[in-house]
Amino acid sequence: MKTATITIKVKPEIKKKAMIIADDLGFNLSTLVNAYLSDLIRNRTVHFSNESFEPTKELIVGLKESEKERKKGNVHTFETVEESLAFIKDIAESNNKV
Length: 98
Prior knowledge:
Blueprint: H1 12-24, H2 29-43, H3 57-72, H4 81-97
C-alpha cells in the first residue's frame, strides 16, 4: 500500500499522552490517525469529546446575565424565523424613532 506523510504540530505533552493511550489500546499513533481520517472521509463528521470542557470567564458572565434576564421575564420565544425577524425589525424601528 502506498502511503503519504503528513506532518502536524502538536504540543509535546499531547503527543506523549496520546502515544501512551494508543499503546495501552494496542495501537500506534499512525494507525489511529489513519482510522480517524478514514472515518472523517466515510462519515463527513468530526467527533470531539467535551468531557474536559471549561467555560471561559466571558461565557460564565454571559450565562449569569442571561439567567438574570430570564428571571425578570425579559425573554422572547418564537415559533418561526419570520416571527423572530419581525421582532428584531420592530426593535430596530423603535430605536430609530428615539
